[in-house]
Amino acid sequence: MDEFEKRNADMIRGMASDTDLKRKSHEWFMAGSRYEYSYHFTWLGRPIIQFPQDIVALQEIIWSVKPDLIIETGIARGGSLIFSASMLELLGGDGEVIGIDIDIREHNRREIEKHPLFKRITMLEGSSIDDAMAKRIYELAKGRTRILVILDSNHTHEHVLRELELYSPLVAKDSYLVVFDTIVEEMPDDFFPNRPWGRGNNPKTAVREFLKKNDRFEIDSEFENKLLITVAPSGYLRCVKD
Questions:
Q1: Which residue ranges of the chain lie beneath pLDDT 50?
Q2: Which residue in 111, 138, 206, 227 could disulfide with 161, CB within 3.0 to 4.6 Å?
Q3: Phi and psi dihedrals of 200, rounded to 5?
Q4: How far apart are CA 82 and CA 42, in angstroms?
Q5: Residues paired with residue 71 on neighbouring β-strands, in sequence order
Q6: Whole-angstrom distance between the N-terminal and C-terminal Cα of the chain?
Q7: What is the pLDDT of residue 212?
Q8: Predicted local confidence at residue 190, as pLDDT
Q9: In angstroms, rounded to a whole number, what is the distance separating the alpha carbons of residues 139 and 13?
Q10: pLDDT tens string 189-198
């Protein structure tokens, strides 16, 4: 590790222990979320609906892992699929992205399908926790050895826990399973009045339960320590065992 990397590591440790900075970061996150901050960005022309910090973190993971398959639950307007496909395009090879959503709106499907990076994308409509869907994903994953999984669909505890149970076996050592919107556990009870999730019932509670039973994964806390602003605190899970 050279002096630049050592200094960065020291600074990240310092930020991680700076409770005032972390409090201010969370306050900023909450203030920005009132204006649907994450909805304001696109990736190569499609709305990505992510915080820029988490996009950068995913870029680091993809460049490091060099996956030959990325599985994403939750498609929305397709920006995340396009992002993953663009990273695989930069890596070269025959890497693909599979996106699963229970309802792929026709106008979104149309825009994604005409994108120049659609050649690397397969979209499947249906529930990510349906056994038939999981079987299809496993069939499509045959022969792939470096798989990255990103969970960003229904954010209830039960749904995310089932996704974790279904798709974690596909992730090999040194790759990642990323669980978005664990931040729900740290937001006010009234922040999601029209959603079935909230405090005590969200991706972070699912991650906690999952890790009690599965020792193949651990939280890579370096990401949230250096991002400070992220929708996925405790959600960057690194696979540490075959």
A1: none
A2: 206
A3: 85, -5
A4: 10
A5: 98, 149
A6: 27
A7: 98
A8: 86
A9: 42
A10: 889 989 999 9
Sign of the dihedral defined by the CA atoms of residues 7, 65, 52, 166, in that order: negative
Q: Kindly list the distances between the CA atom of residue 60 and the CA atoms of 53, 68, 183, in Å, as whole numbers in the listed order.
A: 11, 15, 21
Residue 23 CB burial class (10 angstroms; 0-12, 13-18, ≥19): exposed
Cα(187)–Cα(30) distance, rounded to whole angstroms?
8
Q: What is the pLDDT of residues 199-228, one digit of tens each?
A: 999 999 999 999 999 999 999 999 999 999
177: β partners = 149, 237
Domains within the chain, CATH numbers bracketed: 3-239 (3.40.50.150)
Amino acid identity of 234? S
Output the DSSP codes for 29-70.
HHHHHTTTGGGG-EETTEE--S-HHHHHHHHHHHHHH--SEE
- Per-residue pLDDT, 1: 65
Look-up of token digits 């693909």: 96
- What are 81's two structure tokens? 């699929």
Residue with tokens 């498609």: 75
Give the residues across from 69 on adjacent strands.
Answer: 96, 147
Distance of CA 59 to the CA centre of its chain: 11
In this prediction the pTM is: 0.97
Structure tokens at 153: 């669909």
Please say whether the beta carbons of 151 and 164 come within 8 A.
yes
Would you give the DSSP letter of residue 209? H
Q: Measure Cα distances from 66 to 55, 90, 214 in Å.
A: 16, 10, 24
